[in-house]
Design a protein that fits this description.
Helices cover 24% and strands 20% of the residues. It has 583 residues and is α+β, with helices and mostly antiparallel strands. A hairpin with a 6-residue loop joins strand 6 and strand 7. The longest helix is centred in the middle third of the chain and has 19 residues. The protein starts with a helix and ends in an 8-residue tail after the last strand.
């Protein structure tokens, strides 16, 4: 029985049995709701003969009404019923097939976050369950007020990434110090700019000699404990030693650099193995063949793809690169992270659902974070903000150091370079890029600069009272001495401590003191944002004076307060978009 006669026998209009298969783009015959579809070439006319049967198909005829396979069939029409009216427009015109709708399961959101390069896959209702599964993977450490309570998409942010040498996880028994409590073996302070045009990944050597401050830890039962600080110890002992947690490492970073980490992410040996395996391997390059008996890295010269154990061996290798020390290992690790970021953002990864699922699972299982970013949703937000930064503007740096003179002839440790390091810390603290980028906030900066323009009073005419509002003790007095001795601002006085601490230094002045404010701002290197139009105060001589409040950002008497507009030149920096060979 042919299709047309069968349709008449079932009192079904034959045209209603033709549907568009969205997978093939072809019209197919569906004889019943559950039956198989039989492809039949060629279109059919929508007009009917009086007996209800369709006339023979002719070239150029219009196709039947288009319907997707998922849509239920229209109600059956009795044989001989009045045919549907012909669509308006040119007869015989061929209507283009509708594009098949995308399945919800194909709406994949991929995201990366710092060197962790986290990936989350959201797939409709199943995505919610998977999200909960991922959230159960993430471990947390309560570091109290050391970390921020939440994450803001509108601000610059700093995340301390810590790689521990703790030998947890399958296959890691032979790595590192078997008695290690989990020291801060690899440390990267990741700064992401407020306008998301750039980011800086600053590596901190584990053998850097620092003063580790007192830190407060929170026990599992909620009780707090103070762990005493130690002077002139390796940086890596800021974690694990004496029961110190990641909060202690965050405080040590701030003490050394002046940069406050907002959050931390911590991983162990397994992170490198599982992440590289999830993406199918990461390409690395070595300038010469390597066969390292200590790390077990075995690679020919040139490019190779590593994953799992060999990937871990690559980032652990010291004795095969440079001077066989930690600083050369850091360079290799930075090259590796750049390659991992490129692989995670490649189309080969982002268009492969299995890789995305595996990557999300591996990344979250490898993570320990603070309470402020423990939800997978927040981690996703961080990663999506990080994803906005072009790889060419992600700069890898290392804290400038010098050999530790206390080591004697054999140098085992390093100290911060007191000349080269501070400008780098200042640039990061002031959100300055180490690559050439177009800033989005030029108008705001121009407005600040305009506030500093105009006539200026002579230094001898400047009247100001100085308050200490969070700067180091003695800052108000030392600033007074600098003003009077070095700058000739004799109408200045020390007014003691401010009623409240300020994070930023401010200069408040009355409208008729604007020229005095501009002169003092120029001498001190104050930015336009530090100038605060307001009221004058009466000084000890009964004359109107301005109020200078030294905030926590005050750097010292005579030290310019103006944020650097350009980052310093740094040797051996690299960016995430360029592949390099470890040597």
């Amino acid at each position: 029985m042919d299709a047309q006669s069968r349709g008449r026998a079932d009192n079904i209009d034959p045209a209603d049995q033709w549907v568009l298969n969205p997978n093939t783009g072809e019209y197919e015959l569906r004889l019943n709701p559950s039956g198989a579809q039989s492809p039949v070439p060629g279109p059919r006319r929508s007009a009917r003969r009086d007996d209800g049967a369709a006339p023979p198909r002719r070239r150029g005829d219009a196709p039947p009404r288009e319907r997707e396979a998922e849509v239920p069939q229209q109600p059956r029409r009795r044989r001989g019923a009045e045919p549907e009216p012909e669509p308006q427009g040119r007869r015989g015109a061929r209507r283009p097939p509708k594009k098949p709708k995308k399945s919800k399961a194909k709406k994949i959101i991929a995201w990366t976050g710092g060197s962790m390069a986290l990936v989350l896959v959201a797939v409709g209702s199943a995505g919610y369950l998977y999200l909960k599964h991922l959230e159960g993977n993430v471990a947390t450490t309560d570091v109290g007020s050391v970390a921020k309570k939440g994450f803001s998409k509108d601000d610059a942010f700093n995340i301390l990434i810590i790689g521990t040498d703790k030998r947890t996880g399958k296959g890691n028994a032979g790595y590192g110090d078997k008695n290690s409590v989990g020291h801060a073996d690899t440390n990267i302070l990741l700064h992401v700019a407020k306008d998301r045009t750039n980011a800086t990944a600053l590596s901190i050597p584990r053998d850097l000699i620092v003063d580790i401050p007192d830190c407060k830890t929170v026990e599992p039962d909620g009780k707090e404990d103070i762990i005493g600080g130690t002077d002139q110890h390796r940086f890596n002992e800021s974690l694990g030693q004496e029961g110190r947690n990641a909060g202690c490492t965050m405080q040590t970073v701030q003490a050394v650099t002046g940069i406050r980490p907002d959050h931390f992410m911590m991983v162990d040996f397994n992170a490198v193995k599982t992440l590289t395996s999830a993406v199918g391997g990461v390409e690395v390059c070595v300038a010469h063949a390597v066969n390292d008996p200590d790390s077990h890295l075995n690679l020919p010269a040139g490019k190779s793809t590593v994953k799992g154990e060999q990937a871990l061996a690559f980032v652990r290798t010291r004795h095969s690169f440079g001077n066989h020390g930690d600083l050369d290992r850091i360079k290799a690790q930075q090259q590796f992270m750049g390659s991992l970021m490129r692989k995670m953002s490649s189309s080969d990864t982002l268009t492969n659902p299995k890789k995305l699922f595996d990557l999300a699972d591996a990344a979250t299982k490898a993570l320990t974070v603070d309470q402020g970013i423990k939800s997978v949703g927040t981690l996703k937000d961080i990663a999506l903000e990080m994803k906005k930064v072009p790889p060419k503007n992600i700069t890898f740096l290392t804290v400038p150091v010098k050999d530790n003179p206390a080591d004697g002839v054999i140098h085992k440790t390093v100290i911060v370079d007191p000349v080269a390091a501070p400008p780098i810390f200042d640039a990061i603290n002031n959100d300055v890029s180490f690559t050439d980028v177009k800033k989005k906030k030029k108008a705001a900066k121009d407005a600040q600069a305009a506030r500093l323009k105009g006539s200026r009073s002579a230094a001898s005419d400047v009247r100001v009272r100085i308050l200490n509002g969070g700067a180091q003790a003695g800052s108000a007095q030392s600033t007074l001495q600098w003003m009077q001795t070095d700058k000739g601002i004799l109408k200045s006085e020390n007014a003691g401590n401010a009623p409240a601490e300020l994070s930023k230094t401010t200069l408040e002045y009355a409208p008729d003191q604007a020229s005095q404010a501009r002169e003092l701002a120029a001498l001190m290197g104050l930015s336009g944002s530090a100038l605060k139009p307001g009221k004058s105060v009466t000084n000890s001589q009964g004359l109107p004076a301005m109020t200078l409040t030294l905030g926590k950002d005050f750097k010292g008497a005579g030290v310019s307060m103006t944020a650097p507009s350009k980052a310093p030149e740094v040797a051996n920096k690299s960016t995430a978009d360029k592949a390099q060979c470890a040597s």
